[in-house]
Amino acid sequence: MSRKSERLVNLTIALLATKRYLTKNEIFRSVEGYDGGDDAKERMFERDKDDLRSLGIEIEVGGLDPLFNDEAGYRIKPEDFKLDLGEISGIDIALLSLAAQAWNGEALNEPAHSALVKLQSMGIDSDLDAIPTLAPRMASSHHELTAVLNAIASRTRISFDYLSSDLVKQSRQVCAYAVASRDGHWYLSGLDTAKAALRTFRFDRISEEIHTVGKSGAYEIPTGFDLLSTFDLELNTSLAVVEVRKGKAHALRKLAHKIEDAGEWERIWINYGDPTLFVDSILWHLDDAIVIEPRSMRESIIRNLQTLVKTHG
């Protein structure tokens, strides 16, 4: 990531996280990358504002105190955060999605966290939860993902040893159709040649190196192959009903396929795969998220919280 790009990311995070307008001086003191004299910083900031606005990121300008004509401040409202990518094709969207999923949390790197810490040390309240989810983490090696993507592109079969859910190692040969990331893990969907059936495999259960088998062009991906529907079917996803506090838990709200107003709260419906990972994501949001259904998950979360209280008081 270039120095300018890193500065733009860190500026965006600082303006998203703040609960009030930030003055230029506060921005220059908290966001890494604004170097040089006052004039140089001013020019960089003006260019950065133009660059962000050209991407469709709306920067709101306002005063710190509405009763006084004081110095202008800046912020980005989470609900207004968006990127204007113009006209792009389905292939462009797929490539952008893959790049974002492989980004490995670059948006919240050390300088970005440093900016939030500096804002807090200056007495400026910030809300990290208000920042929309920018990118998931990548939970597999670059080599595994590259091998599968190359196999899909060349239509070459692959083979690997795979640990089943009961931890039994099995040799698999697959015509790979697509990959996807969910709940912090990468998955591969394709035709299991031995079973002559569509199967989904989790990358971190592949116990050996992935090898290609035979020549390229050995198979075709079915026309209209729908990865998402296959993904849900293969992973046996379950439905959870969760109440989230308004203006909070954006990461959970992004996963919802249905949202209803519930006064001070919003009730959301989410499909989840791995129950342990989903419970962890609920606990992360503390009292801003309450599980309504399934009852077994609600009870599991209560037990976790009770254990936490006993351990730490």
Question: How does the SSE layout of this entry go?
Answer:
Blueprint (H helix, E strand, L loop, with lengths): L2 H15 L6 H7 L7 H17 L5 E4 L8 E4 L14 H12 L8 H12 L20 H13 L2 E7 L5 E14 L2 E8 L4 E6 L8 E3 L13 H8 L3 E8 L4 H6 L2 E5 L2 E8 L2 H10 L4 E5 L1 H18 L1
Antiparallel strand pairs: 1-2, 3-4, 3-7, 4-5, 5-6, 8-10, 8-11, 9-10
Helix pairs in contact: 1-5, 9-10
List keywords for this structure.
single chain, SH3 type barrels, 11 strands, extended, 313 residues, 3 domains, alpha+beta, five-stranded antiparallel β-sheet
Summarize this entry quickly.
Helices cover 38% and strands 23% of the residues.
How many strand elements? 11
Tell me the radius of gyration: 23 Å
Q: Which H/E pattern describes the elements?
A: HHHEEHHHEEEEEHEHEEHEH
- Strand fraction equals 15-25%
Q: Quickly count the helices.
A: 10
Regions with little confidence, pLDDT below 50 for 5+ residues = 100-108, 133-140
The overall pLDDT average reads 75
**End-to-end distance:** 43 Å
Largest sheet, described in full?
A: 5 strands, antiparallel
Strand order across the biggest sheet?
6-5-4-3-7
- Helix fraction, binned, reads 25-40%
Helix/strand/pairing category: alpha+beta
- Shape field: extended
Q: What is the count of structural domains?
A: 3
